[in-house]
Every structure is written in structure tokens, then in C-alpha cells.
Amino acid sequence: MKTTLKSQIRHGFTLIELLVVISIIGVLAAITIPALSKVKQVQYRKAALAELKQLEAAIENFKAKYGAYPPSNRNISGAGYDPLNYPPLYYELSGVTRDASGNYTTLDGASTISAADYSAAYGVAGIINCTKGSAEDKVDAVNFLTGLKIKTNDAVTNNLKRTTVILTSVGGPDDNYTPQPLNASGLNPFRYNSTNPTNSPNSFDLWVDLVIGGKTYRINNWSTR
């Protein structure tokens, strides 16, 4: 008996088959990319909200100790300068010591600023949460940021000297994110107003703006929306 073996011939994709495959990939991409973008938006917003809640708790703890909320930036001078973008929260919440030369150093030793530069940057005479006195009369400052995951940045803008502000870790996150309060990509500080808060008149306004996919999200302490 003679057995005939049929040869197997491998064929390449036809043009129609390639077009079908490309069409399927396009449909999958159209479905997947927006879904992934939405997930990132939710992650960014949740991260910024968690950080804002940490700051909010630290501010309330400050008030419990000192009987008032940390001051806002009262320096309103400088072209294009918005003091709400540069609150002195880092120094007030970190707590500082002051040396004989008039330099403030945070309790964790991470940042030092002269009294003159601090006054020029924030429009206030001094820092409330500062160690004062000595011996039995000594009153120690308190670090209200202990244990909190806080991102900071040393900024040089307008009439601000090299001063440290608290940032959201999320940043823009768009490459063309606007506004850029620190004039540098991805650096987005928390805004704060306790002098004349418009949304929380009996306490303070605390917020940060995120621009994601061309849409602005305001993460704040006065609304759950």
C-alpha cells in the first residue's frame, strides 16, 4: 500500500487578514487606554486627598496647642505673586528653634531660614511654633508633621528667598500643567488661607489643584465633590 503525504504549506497573512487584526487592536486600544487613564485619575485624586487630610489634621493639632490656626502668607507684593501659593505651613507645622543670629531651623534639621528672609517671604514677624525661653521657662516647639509623608521643595520665586513649601506628591501631573506656582514642572504646593477664608469662614481653606487629562480637579477641605 502506498501512503501519500500531503505537504503542509504555510501561508502568510493576506491584506484583509492584516486589516482585520489592525482593526481589532485599534478597538481594544480605544477601550483600554481611556479605562487606564480613568484609573490614574482616581489614583492621583485619592493620593492628593490623603495628603490633604494629613495636613488638615496637623493644622487642627496646631490650633489645639496654640489656640489659633497657623497664619497665612500675608506678603502680597511682587508682580504675578499669589501668597496663597506659598503658605508658611511647613515651618509652623514642623516647629523651629531660633539661634542667636536670628536663623530658624526646623526641629528635624531639614530646613533653615533667616528671620529676615522669613519675614520678607511671608509678611509676618516670626514663627508661632518656635522654642522659646530657657530652663524652667522654656517652651518647646512641636513637630506636628511627625510620621506624615510630606513632600517639600526649596523654592526661589519672586521676592521669596529660598524657603520650603509643602507639595502634593502627585504634581501636575500633565507635562503642560498650568498654573505652575513654583515655575518648575511637576511642583504643586498646597494652598492655604486662614486670614480671610472664603469657603470655610470659621477655620481655614486648604486646597490643591490637579490638572489631569485637561480637566481640573480641586482637592479641598470644604467640599466632598
Structural description of this entry:
By secondary structure, the chain is an alpha+beta fold. It has one domain. Helices cover 29% and strands 16% of the residues. It has 3 helices and 8 strands. The strands form 3 sheets. A 3-stranded antiparallel sheet has the order 1-2-3. It has a 3-stranded antiparallel sheet with strand order 6-7-8, with helices on one face. Strand 7 and strand 8 form a beta hairpin. It is elongated, with a radius of gyration of 27 Å. The chain starts with 14 loop residues before the first helix and ends in a 5-residue tail after the last strand. 26% of the residues are buried. The model has no long low-confidence stretch (mean pLDDT 82).
Structural class: alpha+beta
State the helix count.
3
SSE string, helices as H and strands as E? HHEEEHEEEEE
What share of residues is helical?
A: 25-40%
Mean pLDDT figure: 82
Largest sheet: number of strands, sense, barrel closure? 3 strands, antiparallel
How far is it from the N-terminal to the C-terminal residue, by CA? Answer: 83 Å
User: Regions with pLDDT < 50 over 5+ consecutive residues?
Assistant: none
Gross morphology is elongated
What is the number of strand segments?
A: 8
